[in-house]
Inverse folding.
């Protein structure tokens, strides 16, 4: 059966299989699909310190990055889209500022 193949590691479960298992067993679908939230968060945030665009690498920047990435999943679609527009605007501004400073330092017109 499908369950035997999944349990023995002979096949990866399809998401539809996980949904059915959750319905039948009453287990939490998110836990079955992704694991325990704290384990997922720990794994997702286990990485080197994040370096910001201005070259800083510190724990505060890394913690802020991880907080944003972890908590974005709780937002509604329109909030995520609004954040994407804000990030795009900030990135464009940062890039434009860097290019302006580069031209000013090099004397380019």
């Amino acid at each position: 059966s499908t369950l035997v193949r999944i349990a023995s590691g002979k096949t990866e479960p399809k998401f539809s299989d996980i949904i059915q298992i959750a319905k039948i067993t009453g287990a939490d679908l998110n836990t079955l699909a992704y694991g325990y939230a704290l384990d997922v968060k720990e794994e997702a945030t286990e990485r080197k310190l994040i370096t910001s665009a201005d070259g800083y690498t510190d724990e505060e920047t890394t913690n802020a990055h991880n907080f944003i990435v972890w908590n974005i999943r709780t937002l509604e679609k329109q909030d995520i889209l609004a954040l994407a527009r804000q990030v795009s605007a900030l990135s464009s501004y940062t890039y434009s500022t860097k290019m302006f400073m580069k031209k000013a330092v090099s004397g380019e017109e």
Observations:
- Residues 77-106 form the longest helix (30 residues).
- The chain has a mean pLDDT of 79.
- Residues 1-35 form one domain.
- The two ends are 71 Å apart (CA to CA).
